[in-house]
């Protein structure tokens, strides 16, 4: 079997990279110590799109996203149909997809795991021609995330206290938004007044301490999460339910598996959280799923997991 070659797109400004001080030289040494042939692209002065184009044109068979969820999503979407595999070195703050794939969060351990990783095909969500790898959220959550990004510039404990104050102020003042949801089952959209709506590639599991974690990434379905209300009592109850692993049946939440869904609003533009990044998208939002469209490298334990007992609807 021919040894893999790696082209690494390194985002030195990602959360973990900044916190730990990982450098291009340190990353190159990690690959060399494992006997892995890698070219490290750490040139942050060039646009990401240009760096991705160069990576796709390179002779490497595996492109490595060494960064946060934004870097991974941008690279993953561009790689569809390229014939190359995506590998992940989780250097962001949340690292959602890396956790789902059970990739070690320690950088040196993640590099070492590449040699034993195997290919797996995962689903890719699509909204208005844009690709996402975990979820798109509309409503309350993007506003919270925008505040978080501003407060992150504050030092240490001040940031945590500042965010909690901002969170509860926003929670007290938050108003529901009106949207039209067409899941294609009745032919007629239904109008809902909601606090937030999330569309996820596949579904988030219930289980003790499993916060927004997905066991399966290749079920071929979207999951629609509609949060009807989110007052203080709802926040406490829903958070407690997540801790103990029983939240899908919460009275404020509606969960639905769909093959495709369209979400519309009287607003021409909606602020969304797009795989962890704040974006503005034009309405209506047309969501579909591309089953097993992206090849990723994952530890063997995940790739060899048994298929689900019951197939989800496409």
Automatic annotation (TrEMBL):
Full protein name: Diacylglycerol kinase
Keyword Cell wall biogenesis/degradation recorded: no
InterPro entries: ATP-NAD_kinase_N (IPR017438), Diacylglycerol_kinase_cat_dom (IPR001206), Lipid_Phosphate_FormReg (IPR050187), NAD/diacylglycerol_kinase_sf (IPR016064), YegS/DAGK_C (IPR045540)
Pfam family of the protein (one): DAGK_cat
Originating species: Devosia yakushimensis
Biological classification of the source: Bacteria, Pseudomonadati, Pseudomonadota, Alphaproteobacteria, Hyphomicrobiales
Domain DAGKc, chain residue ranges per copy: 1-131
Residues spanning the membrane: none
Record's keyword terms, sorted: ATP-binding, Kinase, Nucleotide-binding, Transferase
GO terms for MF: kinase activity
SMART domains given in the database record: DAGKc
Keyword Nucleotide-binding in annotation: yes
């Amino acid at each position: 079997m021919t040894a893999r070659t790696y082209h690494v797109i390194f985002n030195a400004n990602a959360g973990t990279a900044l916190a730990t001080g990982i450098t291009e030289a340190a990353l190159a040494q990690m690959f060399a110590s494992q006997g892995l042939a890698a070219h490290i692209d750490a040139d942050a002065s060039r646009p990401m799109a240009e760096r991705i184009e160069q990576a796709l044109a390179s002779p490497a068979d595996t492109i490595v996203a060494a960064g946060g969820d934004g870097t991974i999503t941008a690279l993953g979407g561009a790689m569809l149909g390229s014939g190359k595999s995506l590998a992940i070195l989780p250097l962001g703050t949340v690292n959602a997809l890396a956790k789902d794939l059970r990739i070690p969060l320690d950088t040196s351990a993640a590099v070492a795991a590449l040699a034993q990783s195997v290919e797996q095909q995962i689903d890719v969500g699509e909204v208005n021609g844009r690709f996402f790898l975990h979820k798109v959220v509309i409503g309350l959550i993007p506003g919270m995330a925008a505040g978080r990004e501003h407060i992150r510039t504050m030092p240490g404990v001040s940031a945590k206290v500042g965010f909690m104050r901002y969170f509860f102020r926003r929670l007290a003042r938050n108003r529901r938004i009106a949207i039209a949801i067409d899941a294609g089952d009745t032919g007629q959209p239904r109008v809902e007044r909601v606090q937030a709506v999330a569309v996820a590639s596949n579904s988030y599991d219930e289980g003790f301490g499993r916060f927004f974690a997905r066991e399966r990434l290749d079920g071929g379905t979207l999951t629609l999460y509609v949060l009807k209300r989110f007052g203080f009592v709802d926040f406490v109850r829903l958070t407690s339910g997540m801790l103990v692993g029983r939240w899908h049946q919460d009275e404020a939440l509606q969960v639905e598996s769909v093959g495709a869904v369209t979400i519309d609003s009287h607003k021409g533009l909606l602020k969304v959280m797009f795989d962890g990044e704040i974006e503005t998208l034009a309405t209506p939002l047309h969501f579909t799923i591309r089953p097993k469209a992206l090849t990723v490298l994952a530890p063997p334990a995940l790739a060899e997991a048994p298929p689900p007992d019951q197939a989800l609807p496409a």
